[in-house]
UniProtKB/TrEMBL annotation:
Sequence similarity: Belongs to the TCAB1 family.
Entries under Gene3D superfamilies matching the protein: YVTN repeat-like/Quinoprotein amine dehydrogenase
UniProt-listed SUPFAM superfamilies: WD40 repeat-like (SSF50978)
PROSITE patterns tied to this protein: WD_REPEATS_1, WD_REPEATS_2, WD_REPEATS_REGION
This protein's name: WD repeat-containing protein 79
Source organism: Spodoptera litura
Keywords noted in UniProt: Repeat, WD repeat
Residue ranges, annotated region (Disordered): 417-446
WD repeats: 263-298, 322-341
One Pfam assignment: WD40
Gene Ontology MF annotations: RNA binding
Protein encoded by which gene: LOC111356878
SMART domains: WD40 (SM00320)
Length: 466
């Protein structure tokens, strides 16, 4: 894999040889000022959703093979942009990890409404067996530095593994062992902000590994509830658990976690926690909970705000916060993308108890006809990555069969009982017994609204839009 370097091209000035030293000094000063101004332009994050229109840029989809098992359903379970914005890492159920590159024409400039949609193909595909619990990029990843191009995964019955983003090879692994010296998989994993440490959450512990020392060396901290999801910002660590609580820790030294407090408010197991870029607020979501809770880490006793979304299953539905901290976006099991713009809806403000709580989203975009479970905002460009899909249960397909002697003996009995005064519950019970005796053939069938795709959207300004 040859990954491109995402950067804003700058015109190089040929200084040449100056006869007058003062002229050279003045030119250097001017070039330095221009460089500083260019750096400010590079780090200035663009405005999002200004045109109130989303343009589909690229699309990639997955479908079940004909020879695959009936229970195999390849739907998206998460996607994350790389820190340098050159590619997107996505996890597909029963199909491992995929790396998809961003088209080079999207590195700079704007997008026209009539742009041709790209059909994406994975440049790297790691076929991992087992359920992948969590994944993350190296925070200092840069395509021009091959050593920094890697990601972490933690999956069922396996240690934390580091993968190379150039060829998809396994670099190393970090193994956590319990009190009886048995290796156990991590439920969640994340890098520290400087990338020197790996923080992995387990059922009863939080283990910190040194990135440069793979193996079984770690620092351990005991916890009371499983660490289903984690996030870190500066010296703070937030841990969401299956028991609906969120624990907040202060990290002074690696492995030394000082408990700050526990936050309560969700109705289901917490599936994601994420700090705002300034580190003052924390957003959390849970399974089968139609709410995003916003917390002020200085006053964590109660939620600061409640943002409605649709999550009607146990599936993890991701949300994301823009690097500028103004926009909060979330998917839902109804396939609708919801956006909260701080300039129009003060979603980071305190909650008014007497206020009637309705749908406070600034924008709503029906992007997918299936569950929109994955959301990731590009770190530099106004581009959004979304993933769709969910597990669809099997539906019984009744095939016509000739009547047997057992069915003939049942029908007169049912007819006789129906003529008597029996309750509705008894009739329904007899009907279920007849359906069970028929033993219909069970066949895996996708619903008509099933969709398993990874899509890139343009969410910036569209100059030629009329």
């Amino acid at each position: 894999m040859k990954m491109g370097e995402l950067s804003i091209e700058m015109d190089q000035v040929d200084v040449g040889e100056f006869n007058n030293p003062s002229e050279a000094t003045a030119n250097n000063v001017e070039n330095g000022e221009n460089a500083i101004a260019s750096e400010e332009l590079i780090h200035q994050y663009p405005s999002l959703f200004t045109s109130k229109t989303l343009i589909e840029l690229s699309n990639s989809s997955w479908s079940r093979s004909r020879r695959a098992n009936e229970d195999v359903q390849p739907y998206l379970r998460g996607c994350k942009w790389s820190p340098d914005g050159t590619c997107c890492l996505s996890v597909v159920n029963n199909d491992g990890v995929h790396v998809t590159e961003l088209s080079r024409d999207l590195y700079t400039g704007y997008v026209a409404p009539n742009r041709i949609i790209d059909v994406m193909d994975s440049v790297i595909h790691v076929k991992e067996c087992g359920l992948i619990y969590d994944f993350c990029w190296f925070p200092l990843m840069n395509s021009s530095v091959p050593e920094s191009c890697c990601w972490l995964t933690t999956r069922q019955n396996a240690p934390v593994q580091m993968w190379d983003a150039y060829d998809g090879s396994l670099r190393c692994s970090y193994r956590g062992f319990d009190a009886v010296d048995q290796m156990e998989p991590a439920l969640s994993v994340i890098f520290s902000n400087d990338g020197s440490q790996i923080i992995a959450g387990y059922k009863k512990t939080i283990r910190t590994f040194d990135v440069e020392r793979p193996g079984r060396e770690f620092v351990e901290h005991k916890i009371k509830a499983p660490a289903a999801c984690i996030d870190t910002c500066n010296d703070l660590l937030a841990v969401g658990s299956w028991n609906t609580t969120i624990s907040l820790y202060s990290v002074n030294t690696p492995g030394n976690y000082k408990s700050i407090g526990v936050m309560h408010g969700h109705g289901g197991g917490v599936t994601q926690v994420k700090f705002t870029p300034d580190g003052r607020y924390l957003v959390s979501g849970a399974r089968k909970d139609n709410r995003l809770l916003l917390w002020d880490i200085r006053y964590y006793r109660r939620p600061l705000n409640i943002l409605p979304r649709v999550v009607e299953t146990n599936q993890r539905v991701y949300f994301d916060i823009s690097p500028c901290g103004k926009y909060l976006v979330s998917g839902g099991t109804d396939g609708v993308l919801k956006v909260w713009d701080e300039d129009q809806v003060h979603w980071r403000s305190a909650l008014e108890v007497t206020e009637h709580m309705g749908d406070t989203a600034t924008y709503k975009f029906p992007l997918h006809k299936d569950c929109c479970n994955s959301i990731s905002i590009h770190p530099l460009r106004p581009i959004l990555a979304t993933g769709s899909g969910q597990y669809h249960l099997r539906r019984p397909m009744t095939s016509p069969e000739p009547k047997t002697n057992n069915q003939d003996s049942i029908l007169p009995i049912i007819k006789k009982e129906s003529s008597s005064d029996e309750s509705i519950a008894t009739k329904q019970s007899n009907k279920r017994k007849i359906e069970e005796r028929e033993s219909p053939d069970l066949e895996m069938e996708y619903k008509e609204d099933s969709e398993n795709s990874l899509v890139f959207w343009w969410i910036g300004e569209v100059p030629d839009l009329t």
